[in-house]
């Protein structure tokens, strides 16, 4: 578990990079052996691209790093449970193991809503380890969305000509 936490902390650092540019704080690293070969963080708003999820960016980097579309001996560490698109990419790229922090009750496809990465109908299944530094990963998202809601509320008040500090 100590090893998983070490790499999840690197994924958390990636998530903080996303937050710093106004993106939802989700980060991912891909590891082969004991070496990080790829890293990514959410860039959907920045790139105006629906597929610019942390996992998708990291998978593409890993493919390039290995000069191979197969990531058979790789582990993917991500702060939030992968969505259907990312779970599909994990299966298609043949990632060996997925390690995630927080569960995603609205889109999680590594066991929460469904389990695409372990569905035996596909030609590949990945091992799944969940809840690694879950509290820390979840807190990043909770704070981000709380602040976002507050900024939106503030903007609505200012549009109406209200000064909330009065």
UniProtKB/TrEMBL annotation:
Membership in a protein family: Belongs to the cytidine and deoxycytidylate deaminase family. ADAT2 subfamily.
GO BP of this protein: tRNA wobble adenosine to inosine editing
Annotated positions binding Zn(2+): 53, 83, 86
Cofactors demanded by this protein: Zn(2+)
Gene: tadA
Species name: Exiguobacterium chiriqhucha RW-2
Top-level taxon of the source organism: Bacteria
CDD domains: nucleoside_deaminase
Keyword terms, alphabetized: Hydrolase, Metal-binding, tRNA processing, Zinc
Cofactor mode of binding and number, as noted: Binds 1 zinc ion per subunit.
Protein name, as recorded: tRNA-specific adenosine deaminase
Residue intervals of the CMP/dCMP-type deaminase domain: 2-120
């Amino acid at each position: 578990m100590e090893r998983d936490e070490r790499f999840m902390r690197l994924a958390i650092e990636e998530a903080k990079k996303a937050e710093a540019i106004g993106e939802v704080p989700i980060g991912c690293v891909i590891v082969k052996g004991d070496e990080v070969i790829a890293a990514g963080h959410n860039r959907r708003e920045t790139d105006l691209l629906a597929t610019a999820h942390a996992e998708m960016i990291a998978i593409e980097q890993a493919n390039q790093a290995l000069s191979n579309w197969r990531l058979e001996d790789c582990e993917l560490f991500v702060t939030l449970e992968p969505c259907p698109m990312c779970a599909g990419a994990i299966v298609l790229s043949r990632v060996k193991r997925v390690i995630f922090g927080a569960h995603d009750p609205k889109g999680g496809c590594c066991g929460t809503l469904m389990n695409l990465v372990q569905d035996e109908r596909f030609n590949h299944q990945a091992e799944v380890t969940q809840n690694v530094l879950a509290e820390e990963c979840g807190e990043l998202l909770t704070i981000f969305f709380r602040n976002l809601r507050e900024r939106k509320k503030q903007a609505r008040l200012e549009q109406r000509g209200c000064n909330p500090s009065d």
